[in-house]
Amino acid sequence: MLPIFQHAIESFNTHLTLAQSLAEPKKYYKSINSNIDLTLQHLMTQLNLDPELLQAKPYQLSGGQLQRFNILRTLMLQPEILICDEITSNLDVLLEQQMSNVLLNYYEETQHGMVIISHDMAFITATVERIVVMRDGEIVDDFHKKYLFSAERHPYTQQLLAVYDVEWRSKK
């Protein structure tokens, strides 16, 4: 089980290049796939990351680029369970869609589980099958995404959807 954290800048050593940072997990995860370099290249292509960026230090990248490297660093290890905590917070709408596709491809290729923590309903509905809604640390709703707008939804879920609807309408 490995996490992908929201704040990518805090998860990279600012003194190391991205290539050095991506080499670090190899030292500690001896059981990882021997094709990790091929996996890295594949993910860089999927995430639309220029290989020249590997020589940069974290502070030299945009927030979106760094978040994609943050995601890449975990996905290249192919954890059995991936925990994504607000991973789209620094991404624009196009990169968010791309991220959804990358996670869906990851699942199709590995059949490994994912837990996605997010307030972004558009990202959630595009990426997951089941939705679990929590309030104050307690599960208040659990359903397949096709039942998202069901009248049976918990009142808190309905509140979240109302906020999402207002935000969505204001972007039109």
From TrEMBL:
Keywords: ATP-binding, Hydrolase, Nucleotide-binding, Transport. It is an enzyme of class 3 (hydrolase). It holds the Pfam family ABC_tran. It comes from the Bacteria. Residues 10-89 form the ABC transporter domain. GO terms for molecular function: ATP binding; ATP hydrolysis activity. The keyword Transport applies. The keyword Hydrolase applies. InterPro entries: ABC_transp_ATP-bind, ABC_transporter-like_ATP-bd, P-loop_NTPase. Its EC number is 3.6.3.-. This is Peptide ABC transporter ATPase. The lineage of its organism: Bacteria, Bacillati, Bacillota, Bacilli, Bacillales. The gene is gsiA_1.
